[in-house]
Structures are given as structure tokens and as C-alpha cells.
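HUMAN:
Just now I want nothing more than another pair of eyes on a protein record. I would be glad if you read both lines and explained how they fit together. I have put the entry right below:
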Amino acid sequence: MPTPTATPAETDVLIVGGGLGGVAAALAVCRAGRRAVLTEETDWIGGQLTAQAVPPDEHPWVEEFGVTASYRALRESIREHYRRWYPMRAEALDLPRLNPGAGRVSKLCHEPKVALAVLESMLAPHRTAGRLTVLTEHRPVGAQADGDTVRAVTFEDVRDGDRHTVSAPYVIDATETGELLELAGVEHVLGAEARSEYDEPHAPDVADPLNQQGITVCFAVSHHEGENHTIDRPADYDFWRSYRPDFWPGPLLGFLAPDPRSLAAVDRTFVPNPDVDPLAVNADQSADAGDKELWGFRRILARGLHRPGAFGSDITLVNWPLNDYWLKPLVGDGEQTAREALEGARELSRSVLYWLQTEAPRTDGGTGFPGLRIRPDITGTADGLAKSAYVREARRIKAVTTVTEHDVAIDLVGPYGGTKHRDSVGVGNYRIDLHPSTGGDNYIDIGSVPFEIPLGALVPRRVRNLLPAGKNIGTTHITNGCYRLHPVEWNIGEVAGALAAHCLTENVQPHQVQEEDKRFDEFARVLDRGGVQRHWPDVRGY
């Protein structure tokens, strides 16, 4: 995506971070007729859906309800892209709920570059109209704050080192790690809170800011029997080949791994290009997590949905227990540790690929799948690894409202329970799903209920004009596990953008909108007109 030659010095709303929350925020601001600047550190907008190469994790009712109208438009546009441009079988073309990858993790698995094309198309009219400036390959390096107001943010162009400062009456932090909170001095928390703080049953006894969920560097592969695509042996392969975590049933590089929900040791299966009609796949995580058969779990292109010979192989996305990295924290322990964590995660993923190609057990009794080919064309990178690590946990604002386990855990509130919020600005649903952490925790994966997103979780306690637009809202280490997925991040970003535009139009502050019933009702009508669902029908958690 080209960067404009002129960088605006000021705008109405500055959105830092071009992931799903950032894109949704930009759309909401521009739909309201306001100007926005959207920045992104990589050259792809879309965050976890594109640059991080993670097919969407969604709740089982996603086709009927439980997402915003604009998120539904994103999903349907992805499907239409495949129908229009791919050589699909007639039976697949006729499916109103087409799942292009026939993956089991989601009812809509697809290639990152298709999502990128759709997201760029959604932003295109606002860029042409001059309402939106998109600055890719720009990272925030400083912020100017005056009392309770963030005045401006300084960015560095990662290509040439040039720096630019942009000021705005409203600033939205849509970064993957909540880094603007640190730069702007916004009160925040990181890692795990102590159990004593909110009496959460699954919180640790002692707070630990460096206890964070592992990150994952994803990659895509296809399989071509009879060919040899084995990569060079990674430098740290011997370490990863012998690494066996204390809480793991065997070596990390192996198909035996804990079941996230029960922690029982379960063998995964791996059979490239199985002879199963992808039209028979029904993705429903409430009935079956779908994660035991690795090839089909996050498959993003199913050759069987297309005319014979169109594609020589399926393409699947590797985001498995094998390549979760948790040896060092990404956030909060300095830049050197962050660089080491990112390189460690990349080296682990390279080692997983090499192990799959050379040593992984086959069902025919042999070892290794040399026909596995990493796909740089899918990730848009030279080495085939995703542009960015999949970051599950960020810095989180100290918010007016903090969502805790007592609001959403099914064991605490019952299958039809959950906190009903006066200031609900959206809905979401996912199990409380925490991956193994840098603090040595195994999976924490427990049932939750369909939840409402309180506006108070998007409002910092002190700062008046900064809003979060992703995993940096007022959740805890525990509840982040169900608030961190694609449709919820989009919902949060859309609300943040709509709120900033609304506050500019009405000359009010976010705190007033959240606190005062009349002002909140006015904003709620804006959301309702925009297709933001704020309450659930009668559905059961899982």
C-alpha cells in the first residue's frame, strides 16, 4: 500500500495501529464525515487477519447474529471475492455460507491477502475523498501529553528513519501491544493480576506483569508429494528438538500435546491433502474445537472446492501448539527482550517446519514430509513467515470498568448468565482461552457466556481523549482470553472510532457519554443506526 508523499500534521482522529480494530475505527470516523489518519508498522493493514496470518476465530452464531453490520460486510465481501475470481465448483459457488478454506477453526477460513484486498477496498472511497490518510510502515516512537490530554504522536518511517508528528483532538491506540499507552503515560496494567485484586478463581496468587500469553509466528504450507522443499536446518533446531516443557506430555516438537480444555495428553493427526470432500466440513467450536486434525484445523484454501486441477494442493496455516513461543515476554521487559522473543518465536516456527519436513511421524510408518512447501506468496514475506507475530495479550488500560472472570465465566454465572451492562456498546462470545504463558502456566481454557462490551472498558480512568481499540481495553489477564478475537476487536475499534467522532460533533468527552444516561442514549442510537448489536438474544454459553 503506497504511503502519501505528504504526511498531515493534524487531523480529527489519529488512529495508531492498522489492525482490525484500527481499520474499523477509521471506517467509523470517516462514515461520520470526520478526517482520520491511520498508521501501521507493517505494509499490510488488517493485523491478526492479514499480517499475522490468523484465520478468524468466531462464535458459533456468527452467521445469524452477534457481530456488527460492518464486520458482516467484511465477511461477505471475502466470500464474494472467492466467488468472483476463483475457479470454484458449482456446488461451492452456490453455498451462501461458503468457507473457502473449509477449515475447522472458523466458518470462514481464507487467505490473508484476500482479507487485505477487501479491507483496502472498504477504505478506498474514504481515501479518495480525502477523509482518510493511511501511513503504512510507520511506527510510533513518542507522544506528547499535556495533563489529561494526549496532544500528538511522533512516528518513524521504518524505511528511511524519517520522523513525523501528527496532532489530533482524539487519539486511538489500536496497536497490537498497547504501546501508545506506554508512550503517552496512560495508566495501564500488564500481564497477570493477583487473585486478591478481583477474586478471579483462575488468577495467580501473586501479580506478575511479565506473565503473558505466548506469541506465535504463523506460516502457510502446501504439500506436493514426490517433491523436496526441505529448508536449511535452523540454527537453534537442536534446542527446539529436545525442548520439553515441564507441563507438556512430551517434546514440544511432536504431535502429542495437552487438550486446552482438559489438559489431557492428546495425539494430533497430520495428513496433508486428505481425500475428504471439504463441503462436508462443518466448523462449530461449541461442538468440536476442531484442533486435533492439524491439516484441516486452519486450512485456508481447499483444493476440493475448486475445479479439478486448479490447485495442486490445499494450503493450511500453521498456528498450532507446536509453535507457540513463551520463553520470553514480548512486552514490558525492554526492547532487547522483545527482539529476542520475536526472533525466538521465528526460530521456533522455522524449526517446526524443518521437523515436519524431516522427522514428523507419518501414518504409513515413515518420517518426514519433504513435500511441504512454505508459501511466501501467502504471507507476503521473503521467508514465508508471517509479517508480524500473533500477539494474544497487550498492555490494558486502567479503565472505568474492568471486565473480570465474575462477569463472563460460565462456572460462576451459569450458562445463561453474564453481566448486563447499562452502557453496552457491543457483544462477543468465545471461551476464556489463554495459551501457555511466559510465567510457566499451561492452557487456561474455560467456558464463558455470550457477553456485552461495556463502554466503561474503553474509557481510561484519567486521560480524556485517548481510546483503546483492541486487546488494550479494560479486561484482566483472564478475561482477555475471550475478548481478544477478531469480531470483538473489530467491534471495539468501530465503537472507539464512532465515539471519537460523536464527541467531536457533540462537543462532549467520552467520560460524559459513559457516565450520563442521556448522553449515552444519544450515542447508543448512533451505534444502533450503524448496525452495532449491543445485546444478545437468549443463547447458551459453552
Notes: The CA atoms of residues 22 and 407 lie 26 Å apart. Confidence is low (pLDDT under 50) at residues 1-5. The longest helix spans residues 335-358.
